[in-house]
């Protein structure tokens, strides 16, 4: 026995490509659509994922380069606990900007600190307080996750477009079958009665 179950499965999948008296033009078009969809989904998905991953990775690296830690003095006490506990409290702080001017503003701080405590805050090159940049590991994980998400969205769009095209082909097949049945059905009814 040559071929076996795998060869039979392959033959069934590729029936649209073989010469077959029941094969219609829509069947061949559908086979090409599915083949193109697979190629576009694999190659395009890989390209989109790579581009997004690199772009996010570069953006986060730029954030790490542009943001600098600076020592600040806490001007107000912070509560010992916050409602909900998931959001860090903000407090008024004073720090020195890169141009040497003394600045004040609000920054997220740990709970339970007293006024006068020295803390580390992050500023950009203009001296504006900004959130701390992600460390390289966090940045890489975020970039990869966003790249994977972009790949999934791209593949879903390709699949949706392919499904719409196949649905139109199915509609055409059903219409042609209905037209053919309208021609042949009465002939068969006369023979059976």
UniProtKB/TrEMBL annotation:
Entry's transmembrane regions: 28-52, 143-165
Source species, domain of life: Bacteria
InterPro entries: MT1774/Rv1733c-like
Keyword annotations of the record: Membrane, Transmembrane, Transmembrane helix
Protein name per UniProt: Integral membrane protein
Lineage of source species: Bacteria, Bacillati, Actinomycetota, Actinomycetes, Kitasatosporales
């Amino acid at each position: 026995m040559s071929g076996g179950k795998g060869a039979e499965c392959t033959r069934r999948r590729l029936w649209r490509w073989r010469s077959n008296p029941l094969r219609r033009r829509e069947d061949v078009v559908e086979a090409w659509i599915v083949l193109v969809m697979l190629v576009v989904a694999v190659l395009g998905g890989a390209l989109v994922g790579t581009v997004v991953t690199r772009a996010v990775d570069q953006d986060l690296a730029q954030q790490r380069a542009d943001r600098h830690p600076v020592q600040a003095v806490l001007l107000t006490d912070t509560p010992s606990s916050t409602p909900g506990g998931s959001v860090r409290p903000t407090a008024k702080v004073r720090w020195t900007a890169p141009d040497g001017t003394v600045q004040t503003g609000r920054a997220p701080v740990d709970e339970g600190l007293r006024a006068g405590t020295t803390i580390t805050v992050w500023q950009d090159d203009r001296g504006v307080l900004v959130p701390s940049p992600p460390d390289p590991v966090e940045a890489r994980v975020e970039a990869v996750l966003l790249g994977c998400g972009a790949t999934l969205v791209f593949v879903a769009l390709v699949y949706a477009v392919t499904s719409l095209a196949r649905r139109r082909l199915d509609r055409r097949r059903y219409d042609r079958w209905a037209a053919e049945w309208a021609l042949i059905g009465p002939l068969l009814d006369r023979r059976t009665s």
